[in-house]
Amino acid sequence: MSNSNLAVRTVIFSMLGNVALATIKFLAGIFGNSYALIADGIESVVDVFASVLVLLGLKYSARPADENHPYGHGKAEPLVTFLVVVFLVVSAGTIAWQAYQHIVTPHKLPKPFTLVVLAVIIIWKEISFQVVMARSKKLKSSSLKAEAWHHRSDAITSIAAFIGITIAIFGGEGFEVADDYAALLAVVFILFNCYKIFRPALSEVMDENNYEEMTAQIRQISLTVPGVKGTEKCFIRKAGMEYHVDLHALVDGELTVTKGHDISHQLKDKLCKVIPELGNVLIHIEPYEGNVN
Length: 293
Description:
This protein has two domains: 3-205, Alpha-lytic protease prodomain-like; 212-288, Alpha-Beta Plaits, CATH 3.30.70.1350. The model has no long low-confidence stretch (mean pLDDT 81). The longest helix is centred in the middle third of the chain and has 30 residues, at 142-171. It starts with a helix and ends in a 5-residue tail after the last strand. Helix 2 runs antiparallel to helix 5, helix 2 (35-61) runs parallel beside helix 6 and helix 4 (113-139) packs antiparallel against helix 5 (142-171). With 293 residues, the protein is mainly alpha-helical. It contains eight helices and three strands, in the order H-H-H-H-H-H-H-E-E-H-E. The radius of gyration is 25 Å and the shape is elongated. It has helices at 3-31, 35-61, 76-103, 113-139, 142-171, 178-205, 212-222, 257-274, and strands at residues 230-239, 242-252, 278-288.
């Protein structure tokens, strides 16, 4: 199975789970008198739309390079991640406003069965987080990472709701608003996770060269290619699930242009074979003068 297909299947898994959970949360929240659960359901609905965006972004970013996009369409992935963050911020604002409205408006105590519902949701969401995060690391996908953190933020929201409902139920009359304050606490966690999703995507769009481990690996592989005496500049930028590399390779200055050209192709082929997630690799040949950076 290709990386793109695995990523798409992962998003569909998330989407179907969020549809089911949103339905369960809304029903449990309405019949169980819990706004924290309804707020949780709002976030799950937003997550469904966010998953649709991620799915579209993955499909578009997987398109091959063309005349107008020689480096492919991978940059679509972090752009979609930005949209997902916007969705999360809007949902956090909606939850905060509705929680405030419930705090200033008297309402009934939540019902005990809502705790059972939340316990099941928390377990499922943490499992979903672990599955999607593992695949995001495997595929080096920023949008899948955002998708994973959706599950974690949903789990945190549910934990806050669980705590708030527990306080309200055991505290009895006068503690009804604990459920609503739990929803406000969840908003803080959601916004914090928004930053954690946003920052790596911004780094990708701005072509930040912060891939020290891969740089070291590229330099080490380069030295195994016959004729390569060292490396100088090595710039890496990420686009979707691929990494594009600009590398300066040092060779004997007395070699012919043809021989230097052959070495550069051998080096490129070796790098792409050992590190399959590399996309475009540009090798610049430099004469070796005895000093290697």
